[in-house]
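Why do we bother with holo predictions? Because pocket geometry can differ from the apo form. Keep that in mind while you read this record for heme C.
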Amino acid sequence: MSFSRSIKILIASAAGLAFTHDVPTVLAQTVTYSRHVAPIFQEKCESCHREGAMGPMSLVGYDEVRPWARAINRVVLSGEMPPWHIDKSVGIQDFSNDRSMTDTQIETVLRWVAEGAPRGNPEDMPAPRTWSKGDVWLFAESLGPPDLVITSPVYTMPTSGADVWYRPITETGITRERWVRAIEIRPSTRSGRRITHHAIAKLQQDEATPTQRTNSIEGVDAGLFMEWAVGKQGEMMRADTGKLMRPDSQILWDIHHHAVGEEIETAIELAIYFYPDGVVPRFRQHLGLFNVISGDPRNLDIPPRTITRNQGHHVMQRAGRIENFQPHMHLRGKAMSMEAILPDGTVRLLSHVNNFQFNWHNNYIYADHVAPLLPAGTTLRFTAWHDNTVANRDNPDADQWVGWGDRTIDEMAHAWVNITYMKDEDYQAAIAERSRGRSLETLQE
Ligand code: HEC
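The structure, written out:
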């Protein structure tokens, strides 16, 4: 037991995680791969770490996992894997796309490595998990085949070389307004998964929404439409809510490829499921790019060997529901938070990403029962920290003065947030519905 306590302290200090539960009973027994660890890896690692998936190695079965025990210990302890970099001790914690491990799972894995990573009794192994071959659309079962599939130009990644950020533009071909109810995205070839670190599709179209314009770095509104990074491949809108695609819209791709020792070709496919013709959902999700730098983003100024903090504010002119939080920074990005300052002055921390990793464009999508419902007049306050010291492992050069720019070695700070704006009466109804029945940790008391 004292062993487990020391692990707890170690984890708590290394990853800033908070443990509130009792020592799990699993720790009273010898932790074995077959019995305790394999089920965790099936649930939390295999989606990326299996043959043909994006992870650099497969972690299916003891023989594949054992050689990585030390590396696994490191990435689990540091909170790098599974990629989920939000502070678990503050803010909202229920997300519809959470791929993180529970505290108990973390302790189990660390304890297993510390005890020599034993195999245990192979008869304890869970049945192997089966994975789709990558050629089925997930929502086709419930919604039928997608209404529109938009494909990026094919990219050929050579056997070796530096990482590539490929950003082509594709016309959507839409000729009238359509309401989107679900989106999926994936590499077009199975081998394409291996070279695709992430793929983001942004929707660019003319918008006449002034509340967004003021927060947009670009002149036109570009919003995050969908991201592919295994583990989360599709997104279904909340009930009665849709995204609007306008005629003459375009998809801006942002695709990160890396070489894997073999020449591989792939495109990215975006599948869109529309609401039936004539059905207009009650609520529209607005895609917003929220600048976290006061004033012009080009003011960003990060001196050598310092940690800087910047803030941006956005007043919600209408009531609304915050659907997600996705911080965007580059190599010096360290942390970003999103707070709501309610009209009565109460400040609520919604989410804090305290372990930002440039490689991962994690989008934290709130679960239905906790997605913040905020009244008109709420100020959203975003705070970004950049670490330009040598302590930041990703920092290419702590002696450089860094400013705003597109290149990876320049910096940025903005958040992609979907907001579903509502009339006051709809907002009141949504709050009433929440407080009915369930006792929830929502932002409304
Ligand atoms: C969403 C996809 C994804 C999930 C889920 C995931 N990984 Fe990874 N993992 C990656 C990718 C991609 C890399 C390559 C490094 C990077 O890009 O961060 C990686 C790297 C690693 C490494 C470092 C390998 C090295 O070369 O040092 C280890 C160890 C690892 N993962 C273990 C795990 C374990 C254990 C789990 C489950 C508890 C897990 N990963 C879950 C995608 C994932």
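Residues 44-45, 47-49, 54-56, 68, 71-72, 75-76, 81-83, 99, 101, 229-231, 359 surround heme C (CB under 6 Å).
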